[in-house]
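User: Could you check the structure of this?
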Amino acid sequence: MEQCDRNPVMSEIFAMLEDISDEVRRPAKNVLFRQGDRAEFIYFVHTGALRTDHQSEDGRNLVLDFLWEGDFLGLAENESYSRSAITLVDSILKRMRRDSVRKLSHRYPAIKDLFLAQKKASLAAARTHIILLSCPTAVEKIVGFLAACSGRSEYFDRHTNVLTLVMNRKDIADYLGISFETISRIFSYLENENYIRRIDSRTIKLTEKIMNNLIC
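Assistant: Sure, the predicted structure tokens are below.
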């Protein structure tokens, strides 16, 4: 668990969490855990990216969030996971038993502060998701989504404005609550209107026209 901008206290906390963790490697499109599985572990995304899904009672699949390097999974769970976690790319995670983390946090309260900060970040991501869902048109939802993705330095080159989308278009559709067909149609529209320039199926260049747009 490494982050170059961590202060000395956080470095010590992460070192202690490292001591009680083991490494889990998963290829792309692999299920880390399923909704309803016993929530035995907390995970830290060392490298890679994942999505979290919720299967509704009527059978619909909802993408709730995307997780990135430096994020934790499984913090706010009870006896079982309330969502599934699936890797988007080859990923390396650190896995910690929840009871071991709980015992360690009693001895070192700063661990609770770390997890509280993560929960606040998760709430901020949920707010962004709600804002995107409330955009009045599908075009605004997708433009807002691309703008949000451009905040991930691992996948966005600020010098060239080239964005790598680690999720596929069905993931985006399930996240924004619109159909796959609508996603395809609007990506074509954005390209025709010079909002984006397609490099390949997962890589696009964002033009100044789209970079000047805020979410909704």
